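PROTEIN FOLDING TASK:
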Amino acid sequence: MLEAMSSSLLNTNQAQPPAAVLPATPKEQPAVCIIVENLPVPLDRRVWREASALRDAGYRVSVICPKGKGRCESSYESLGGIEIHRHKSWDSSGAAGYIIEYFLAFICELFLALKVFARTRFRVLQACNPPDNIFLIALLLKPFGVRFIFDHHDLTPELFESRFGKRLRFFYRSIRVLERLTFKTANACIATNESFREIAISRGQKRPEEVFIVRNCPELAILDPLLTSKMRLPVPFVVVYVGFMGSQDGLPILIDAIEHIVEKEKRKDVHFVLVGGGTELPALQASAASRGLQEFITFTGQIPYQQVPTYISAAHVGVAPDPKTPMNDQSTMIKILEYMAFGIPTVLFDLKEGRRIAGAAALYASPSDPVDFARKILQLLDNETLRRELGANGRRRIRDGLNWEAETPALLAAYRHALG
């Protein structure tokens, strides 16, 4: 339904750092290398923002990541002065499958890290988890003066528990050991929020001055309405989901909520756009089809990031159906910040970090309750005044501090600390 409609693209490279943060002509800094296994770059927007900020500060930046579809298929690319080295990626399921995937990825990362080090002699290795095994490369290079920064993206033990429960105790304990050794090896840690910082200090036994909060926030340029044209849709109301579709992201709960809205509440005036790809996408599409919901749901699949703002700007409500788990309760969902930047209210479950970020820009449903989630969506759709109020609150929070320009100084401070 929506695929045939034209969309405009947002040039996300237009955001420029303020002069007070980064000098116009930065002095030359040491070479650095960033390793991320979870997503390819520049599709991983957080890593791309970090790499760009370091480049603008004068660092020579290399990134090692997996390959992906579209523009991320090449083994090597120099993009905006950032050297990107990509290795083959593997899709896996089950504990054994993840172990094989991470082992093969580690071998590729080790080979590429040695290759990059031979050419650039980088001084800092930044590891973005999961998994928590990249510290082994840092240990290998430590005798050559390489410093190690742990960029803590996910709570790997909690992520494992959310997927597999506690039935695989040996693997869970092994992951906890790897996390502990990663923290111990790190000269500095980057935490995505306050909860992660608390974990680095308590569980990771890092000193407070070694942990720097760098939130995964959008650029201020995203607030410029001239950069994005709204998509026109032939339905009264649009609800959008943006993000990866994995087992921990709560998409089956969202499908249950949609079914309640369509079948129980008899609402035929709402269309749901689910933007993104992931391991659960085929199952979600099959579930929607078996319930006769195809008319009310569009799955876009994985699309270029530049197209995402077009879908968000067309929506009346954004949703974050992440269930209440030990991991989700302490994680910050970037999609919530993106909804806020575009001035649309959010419906999410009552999670600690979710409430801390969204504040008065969202309605909070009872944890993991699809019916209450559906009711909160309809409450917003049926009250334009409330939608505008919550949307304005979100944009204000982004403008006043929850933006990438405000986070950049902490990233650079982490590098200064690591370099001593």
